[in-house]
Amino acid sequence: MDVLNLSQWQFAITSVYHFFFVPLTLGLSVLTAIMETIYASSGQEVYKRMAKFWGTLFLINFAMGVVTGIVQEFQFGMNWSEYSRYVGDIFGVPLAIEALLAFFLESTFLGLWIFGWDKVSKGLHAAFIWLVAVGANISALWILIANSFMQHPVGYELENGRAVMTDFGALLANQYVWTQFPHTVLSGFTTGAVFVFGISLYHLLRKKDEDVFRRSLNLATVFGSISILLVILVGHSQTQQLVRLQPMKIASVEALWESMDPASFSLFTWGDEANLKDRFALRIPNLLSILAYNQPTGLVKGIRNLQAEYEQQYGPGDYVPSVFTTYWTFRIMVGAGLLIFALMGLSLYYIVRNKPLTSFKWARFLPLAIALPYLANSTGWLLTEMGRQPWVVYGLLKTENAFSPNLTPGMVLASVIILTLVYGALMAADVYLLVKFARKGPEQPEGLEQPGAAGAD
Predict the structure, then answer these.
(1) What was the pLDDT predicted at 446?
(2) Mean pLDDT computed over 379-392
């Protein structure tokens, strides 16, 4: 493997590791804030216990997210110096604002929240965690503003072989941001909800702290039901946007070799990527046009036609991403999302019927659903980035022209191995700590003996 491929693998591995932590931070911060707000307004101690318990898990995850995120920014200079030289004037601005505004806001008030229990008023302390949640989600906004420029570059001019920002407002108003940001944040809300749901059900099955975990499960169900429904709706809008802005990504997601009007949706395709044709395909007539245009007719361009267009527009080259990767990551992401939607619907049904979810025949397997949003988030990001290839900045800069030319394969391979091992250890530590504190459960109310404490002396 050459420097380019190794650098791509390094960034992909570190991105997936980092994004393992980010969505839970987005969702769990808001859920913790809601719990503490209920405590501050009602004075019910059970919600204070809930906020402290889920807040502890949030802190563990937040710390790991910070550690893994810092290394990514260094890679822009180390592995992707040509990219940084070419678009650094634009890309660096939202990253700097994210650090100076959002991250400092988040970390400052997180410290106040950790050490401020019972030292300030209930309302003020609840405001601290809300500011943490706002900071986390504003942080995501600035990161996605930077990423959206890579997906759909706006507000720039080319000067002396570099892209220079000419309109900061255009960067903020980039239409790609305003589907990508809500889709990502709502996916984080869903991740937090399923996380709380799974752990709560785990404890309810063991009849432990039932008041805390029953309320937690109910809150997670309502929050998760709303979030996953909005994820699906925003995802639909994002797909329609991609038909206009990145038609090759949609064509590869559907293994659509030739342009079609009306366009059919692929249920299963076994394709021949080398020759851009099907070996076997099972498709639903008109459905892709319906998804793309909300009507049964409408042109969706195919891979072969787009390849010819791009060769005329950009010159000779291969403009087709890995169809196998985009096709299956999309279906795994959507499949996991639909399972979450069904899970939240099932739990909501039991709540409305005033029946415990533990009475469901397969309830003991439902905590495993915690893995579903992680699967959807990871495959979603792989689809987002791999579907843009061969571009690092869509239509502007190819990936093959963006890496650092003075590196050797041995140097990059060594860093790939080291970072993979270190990040793997951090992820293992995160999972270990989350499992340890999740199993331990919330603090017991003052004056209430811990189980087994009697006679301990």
Answers:
(1) 61
(2) 92
Q: How far is CA 26 from CA 13, 47, 67, 189, 192, in A?
A: 21, 20, 16, 6, 7
The C-alpha atoms of residue 224 and residue 222 are separated, in whole angstroms, by 5
| Mean pLDDT over each residue of the chain, to the nearest integer | 90
Q: What is the chain's length?
A: 457
C-alpha neighbours within 13 Å on the C-beta side of residue 16? 18
- pLDDT in the model for residue 429: 87
Tokens of 313: 């527009």
Give the count of beta carbons closer than 10 Å to the beta carbon of residue 261: 12
Q: Kindly report, residue by residue over 135-151, the tens digit of the pLDDT.
A: 999 999 999 999 999 99
What is the residue type of 320? V
Determine the Cα–Cα distance for residues 445 and 449; give it in Å rounded to an integer.
Answer: 9
**Integer Cα distance of 79 and 399 in angstroms:** 12
> What's the pLDDT at 454?
34
Percent of the chain whose pLDDT exceeds 90: 70
Report yes or no: 136 and 29 within 8 Å, Cβ to Cβ: yes
Counting Cα atoms < 13 Å in the Cβ hemisphere of 286 gives 4
Q: What is the predicted pLDDT for the residue at 14?
A: 82
Q: How confident is the model at residue 72 (pLDDT cuts 50, 70, 90)?
A: confident
Distance, in Å, from the CA atom of 35 to the CA atom of 52, rounded to the nearest integer, reads: 9
CB 87 within 8 A of CB 397: yes
Domain range annotation of the chain = 3-246+322-440, 247-320
* Residue 271 β-bridge partners: 278
Give, in degrees to the nearest 5, the angle at Cα 268 between 264 and 269. Answer: 85
Element (H, E) at 18: helix 3-42
Residue 398 burial by CB count (10 A; 0-12/13-18/19+): exposed, middle or buried?
middle
What average pLDDT does this structure show over 99-122? Answer: 89
Q: Are 14 and 419 in contact (CB under 8 A)?
A: yes
3-state secondary structure of 271: strand
